[in-house]
Design brief:
Blueprint: E1 7-9, E2 17-19, E3 49-57, E4 60-67, H1 72-83, E5 91-92, E6 96-97, E7 100-101, E8 118-122, H2 126-132, H3 140-146, H4 150-158, H5 160-172, E9 176-177, E10 186-190, H6 206-209, H7 214-222, E11 225-230, H8 235-244, E12 255-259, E13 265-269, E14 273-277, H9 281-286, E15 295-299, E16 312-314, H10 321-324, H11 330-341
Parallel strand pairs: 3-8, 10-11, 10-15, 11-12, 15-16
Antiparallel strand pairs: 1-2, 3-4, 5-8, 6-7, 9-12, 13-14
Helix pairs in contact: 7-11
Bound molecules: magnesium ion.
Magnesium ion is lined by residues 191, 193-195, 299-301.
Cofactor: Mg(2+)
Organism: Hirondellea gigas
Domain Ubiquitin-like: 51-122
């Protein structure tokens, strides 16, 4: 599998071959059909709640009114409208009847709840994540670029089990935070191998294998973007490579965080087969101020952004460093492109596959 290409070589000539396995408002207020003795269709404002409870979830408290005749599923739908956690994802502690979890058709009035009671909920924001991997409406060229049909890419992005994998990473994975995130900045996520340096060639030191203009590029990008590294290798190797390239010690920019192979997910993609990919939904789920609108990812492998193709820019691979280091100007040009697009409100509307044509006359 090509993704297991991540053999990381040390950057010095001793080149130890370490093969690392990548590795509605639709709250269904109960109908008042019990109140047949009076008006059969009373105005809505006569629909008074019988009691009020609160849902505690994810650091917030959400008041929910319980009406006469309300069933558990109707209650859950009311919770959904407040929290965006889908009913089938909600686990509401204390929503029990005789010690067993309440079923959807039960009446809320049968559960022994008291007024102003607080109920703890465990659940995830399914809708947010679904949105994070949603197919954009206007990206036919990108799809052609990926050489897979629109139907297939929809299939990849909406597969529920992939969303669940992303949710699990959001809950459990911890990026290595190095420097504070800066409010208002966009986010640039960078691959390392063949993007920032040629990890397969042998050199006396990191500088020989570094992609030309790397530091210039990072200094320039840092003005408008928080910088993150996402590499399909282990954290140990990311740290080592960044140190050898002099990225960690450069005083003119800061890397915000590192993400390693453990945050990747395995998907079965049309035309690719089973591959590990880098779903940006993990970052968006963990740090909500980063979104598909303000994030761009550079990688030399397109499949790494299969879950979010509208946010990926496939950079030309930097290989054979000794032959190409005098002529490779990708980072010089991309620094200008990043500067050009930094003013935009929504980066996901761009076709990054055509980045070289963004400026008339090219870069
Ligand atoms: Mg790479």
């Amino acid at each position: 599998m090509e993704n297991n290409e991540d053999k990381s070589k040390e950057l010095n000539s001793s080149s130890v071959d370490n093969i690392e396995k990548v590795s509605s408002q639709d709250t269904k207020v109960s109908s008042l059909d019990t109140d047949v003795s009076q008006d059969k269709n009373p105005p809505e404002d006569e629909c008074k709640p019988s009691l009020s409870v609160s849902i505690k979830w994810s650091g917030g408290v959400y008041p929910i009114s319980i009406y006469d005749g309300m069933t558990v599923i109707e209650f859950k739908e009311a919770v959904y409208s407040e929290t965006k956690v889908r009913p089938d994802k909600q686990k509401i502690v204390n929503l029990k009847c005789k010690g067993k979890p309440a079923t959807d058709e039960m009446q809320m009035s049968s559960l022994g709840l008291r007024n102003n009671m607080k109920l703890m909920m465990v659940g995830s924001v399914d809708e947010v994540l679904a949105e994070a991997v949603a197919v954009p409406e206007d990206m036919p060229e990108v799809i052609n670029d990926l050489d897979i049909s629109e139907e297939n890419i929809t299939c990849v992005q909406n597969r529920q089990d992939y969303i669940e994998k992303i949710e699990k990473r959001v809950r459990e994975y911890k990026p290595k935070l190095l420097n504070p995130m800066r409010p208002g900045k966009k986010l640039l996520v960078l691959d390392i191998d063949y993007t920032l340096f040629d990890h397969r060639s042998v050199g006396q030191n990191g500088l020989e294998l570094m992609r030309p203009y790397l530091h210039h590029f990072l200094v320039s990008a840092y003005e408008d973007y928080d910088l993150a590294i996402w590499s399909a290798t282990s954290m140990k190797w990311i740290e080592e490579k960044m140190r050898l390239l002099g990225v960690t010690s450069n005083p003119n920019y800061n890397i915000c965080f590192y993400v390693d192979s453990l945050a990747m997910i395995r998907i079965d993609a049309p035309n690719y087969g089973v591959v590990e990919v880098k779903p940006l939904g993990v970052i968006w789920g963990k740090y909500s101020h980063y979104t598909s609108k303000n994030t761009i990812m550079f990688d030399d492998l397109r499949r790494n952004f299969l879950m979010n193709p509208q946010n990926g820019l496939k950079i030309k691979a930097f290989r054979n460093a000794h032959e190409n280091r005098d002529t490779d100007v990708e980072l010089l040009k991309l620094a200008v492109y990043l500067k050009d697009i930094a003013v935009l409100q929504d980066l996901s509307k761009l076709r990054h596959s055509k980045w070289e044509n963004y400026r008339k006359g090219g870069y």
